[in-house]
């Protein structure tokens, strides 16, 4: 502990040859003694500021935090009459059943968890490089008008709603029947010899082995152009003199990529990659919901749709469904926080 | 002196142009096909004679849809949800973000965490569903029986957007605020006369994000709006798709246009307004991506 001296509190007054209290210290004492009174004072003085905060707090409290209270259901025996607080406690029985029981529901849950992970993992592997490559290509186009035209066209699908996008996909790969041919995209793929006639005629969306492909390709189609904006911004920030210097040194295109472009966009790349890894389990369930059907549950069912199917259908499975989703949400939260911490350490940029 | 392109650079340039052209065509083609298929004749669509250009042109599919009251209903519902939803969400966000941007706000760190935590962890679909059901009951007791207001008020608030606004407000120099206060401005006047005009472009970006998410909203609108007269456009499109792609229900179809044309016509109608305003809003969208990262 720090040693205290009289001089810390008292000032020596030469004129009267005596000590008097330090006025600044008096203020400090006052602040300490009346801490809460001062708090109230500042709040009263700035009351308008706090009034402004109220609607936001209420909205988030009612519709973001109150649902978390409903999560109590994960630990309670399902009861259709009683409110959740009065239901009997059942411990971790739902979690145990989902994770370890090995019955049909448990297998389905594990399948959903695996599908969730795989869909976003493939999205990362195939979807992440495309915007970067697009940005590199945009950089090659020296004519502004032409480049803007390309950009406008490739951003376009991003503005289409999920429902319209999935409707388009459904129509383009629809099954054939007696009165009509299959979708135009299926026909194109058949003509190219990529898929066989019978498979295409049965409808690609009814075939579990095509679901992941359709999901990823439509995802790339939708977001690649728009996601390239951030990389393109990093690339055009590179000074032309860097290229010139490399060219004088005899660097070909690949060498320029390696020694000029890559180091300049590396930090952006790393941040975007970390963000994507952080949101590995946060999958847009709406798109899955709109594209899947009972035939493709094997590869398409994700945790959110699993929870939605069981929990919204009957009230007896609400606890179980919430438990399933809560597990994936907790893992997801840990991933997000971890990614954010790494990002902050690596680049001083914190995403939240 | 102009330097000659090296062979590797030339090859890369050619690849760039080729692949970009291909990708752009892929992005555009489905829309062109949708338009063509919507206005082509029944036989041409069903037996895939339409590939790029329309054939046996008819406008029956469009006129059938335009004569459908439910379609106009759905459209006006979507406009309602988009307009009021954006106004409400933006209003709440601006007020909250302004308060959060002030260093003198007490418990500022706590309020920030309160927001950010909702981005990390959400309760999930089932608890949210139960919560919305309870809200619906409360609203009914309060006399608000129109489910659209439930969608407007309870849904679509996003912590990320509030943080974007907060950062924009923090960027406004505090000298200007002090000058305004010396001139006798109240807190609300400082916000409306200084802060909002000075962060116009971020506000436009955030408003756009809200509007787009409202316009596109599907799942919760379908779950919570029980009256089919109040369904927004997205739900209407989806229900039509489910109806028209059921082969059994469509077995007795006997019109000059294909049943597919109806779906394509719907798709075209929902895209057209976006295409019209797209050139004007595109730059705000690009901006939104760049302000996504937050420095602390």
The share of residues in extended strands of chain A comes to under 5%
Order of helices and strands of chain A: HEEHHHHHHHHHHHHHHHHHE
State mean pLDDT of chain B (0 to 100 scale): 88
CATH topology of the domain at 69-234 and 276-290 in chain B: MetI-like fold
Shape of chain A: flat
Number of separate strands of chain A: 3
Number of helices of chain A: 18
Please, what is the CATH homologous superfamily of the largest domain in chain A?
A: MetI-like
- The level of helicity of chain A is 55-70%
Strand order of the largest sheet of chain A: 1-2
Shape of chain B: globular
Under the CATH scheme, which class of the domain at 69-234 and 276-290 in chain B?
A: Mainly Alpha
Structural class category of chain A: mainly alpha
How many angstroms does the end-to-end distance of chain A come to? 38 Å
Distance between the termini of chain B: 47 Å
- Largest interface, C-beta within 8 A: A-B, 96 and 108 residues
Keywords:
heterodimer; A: 352 residues; flat; B: MetI-like fold; 72% helix
Descriptive notes:
The complex is a heterodimer of chains A (352) and B (296). Chain A is mainly α. Chain A has 2 domains: 20-75, no CATH class; 100-347, MetI-like fold. Helix content of chain A is 69%, strand content 3%. Chain A is built from 18 helices and 3 strands. In chain A, β1 and β2 form a beta hairpin. Chain A starts with 5 loop residues before the first helix and ends with a strand. The relative contact order of chain A is 0.10. With 296 residues, chain B is mostly helical. Chain B contains 14 helices and 1 strand. The two termini of chain B are 47 Å apart. Chain B has a domain at 69-234 and 276-290: MetI-like (MetI-like fold), CATH 1.10.3720. Chain B has helices at 7-38, 42-46, 60-66, 69-100, 108-120, 125-141, 147-154, 159-170, 174-182, 187-198, 200-216, 219-224, 233-244, 259-290, and one strand at 294-295. Chain B is globular, with a radius of gyration of 25 Å. β3 (349-350) of chain A pairs antiparallel with β1 (294-295) of chain B, so a sheet runs across the interface.
């Amino acid at each position: 502990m720090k040693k205290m001296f009289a001089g810390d509190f008292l000032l020596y007054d030469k004129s009267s040859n005596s000590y008097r209290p330090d006025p600044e210290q008096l203020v400090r004492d006052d602040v300490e003694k009346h801490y809460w009174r001062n708090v109230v004072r500042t709040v009263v003085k700035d009351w308008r500021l706090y009034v402004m905060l109220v609607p936001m707090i209420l909205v988030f409290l009612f519709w973001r935090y109150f649902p978390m209270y409903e999560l109590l259901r994960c630990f309670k025996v399902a009861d259709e009459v009683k409110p959740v607080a009065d239901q009997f406690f059942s411990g971790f029985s739902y979690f145990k059943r989902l994770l370890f029981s090995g019955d049909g529901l448990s297998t389905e849950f594990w399948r959903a968890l695996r599908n969730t992970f795989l869909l976003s993992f493939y999205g990362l592997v195939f979807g992440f490089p495309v915007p970067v490559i697009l940005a590199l290509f945009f950089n090659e186009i020296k004519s502004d008008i032409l480049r803007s035209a390309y950009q406008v066209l490739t951003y376009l699908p991003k503005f289409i709603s999920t429902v319209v996008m999935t409707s388009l996909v459904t129509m383009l790969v629809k099954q054939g029947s007696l009165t009509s041919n299959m979708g135009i995209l299926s026909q194109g793929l058949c003509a190219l010899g990529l898929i066989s006639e019978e498979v295409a005629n049965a409808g690609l969306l009814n075939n579990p082995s095509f679901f992941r492909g359709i999901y990823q390709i439509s995802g790339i189609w939708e977001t690649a152009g728009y996601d390239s904006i951030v990389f393109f911004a990093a690339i055009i920030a590179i000074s032309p003199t860097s290229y010139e210097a490399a060219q004088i040194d005899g660097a070909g295109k690949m060498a320029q990529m390696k020694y000029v472009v890559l180091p300049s966009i590396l930090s952006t790349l790393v941040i975007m990659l970390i963000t994507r890894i952080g949101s590995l389990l946060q999958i847009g369930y709406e798109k899955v919901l709109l594209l899947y059907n009972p035939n493709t549950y094997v590869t398409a069912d994700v945790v959110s749709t699993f929870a939605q199917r069981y929990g919204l259908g009957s009230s007896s499975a609400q606890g179980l469904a919430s438990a399933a989703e809560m597990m994936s949400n907790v893992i997801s939260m840990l991933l997000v926080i971890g990614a954010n911490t790494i990002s902050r350490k690596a680049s001083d940029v914190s995403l939240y | 002196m102009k330097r000659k392109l090296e062979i590797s650079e030339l090859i890369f340039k050619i690849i760039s142009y080729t692949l970009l052209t291909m990708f752009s065509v892929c992005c555009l083609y489905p829309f062109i096909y949708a338009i063509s298929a919507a206005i082509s004749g029944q036989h041409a669509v069903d037996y895939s004679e339409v590939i790029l250009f329309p054939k046996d042109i008819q406008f029956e599919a469009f006129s059938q849809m335009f004569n459908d009251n439910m379609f106009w209903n759905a459209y006006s519902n979507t406009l309602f949800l988009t307009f009021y939803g954006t106004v409400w969400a933006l209003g709440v966000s601006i007020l909250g973000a302004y308060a959060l941007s002030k260093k003198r706000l007490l418990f500022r760190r706590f309020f920030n965490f309160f927001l950010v935590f909702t981005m990390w962890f959400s309760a999930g679909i089932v608890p949210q569903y139960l919560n919305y059901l309870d809200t619906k009951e409360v609203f009914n007791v309060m006399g608000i029986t129109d489910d659209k207001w439930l969608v407007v008020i309870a849904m679509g608030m996003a912590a990320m957007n509030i943080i974007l606004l907060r950062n924009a407000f923090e960027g406004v120099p505090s000298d200007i605020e002090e000058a305004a206060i010396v001139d006798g401005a109240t807190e609300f006047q400082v916000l409306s006369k200084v802060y909002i005009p000075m962060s116009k472009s971020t506000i436009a970006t955030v408003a756009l994000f809200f509007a787009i998410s409202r316009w596109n909203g599907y799942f919760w609108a379908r779950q919570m709006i029980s009256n089919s007269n109040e369904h927004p456009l997205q739900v209407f499109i989806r229900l039509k798709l489910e109806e028209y792609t059921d082969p059994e229900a469509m077995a007795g179809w006997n019109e000059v246009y294909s049943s597919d044309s109806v779906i394509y016509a719907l798709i075209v109608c929902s895209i057209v307004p976006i295409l019209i305003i797209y050139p004007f809003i595109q730059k705000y969208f690009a901006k939104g991506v760049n302000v996504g990262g937050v420095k602390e």
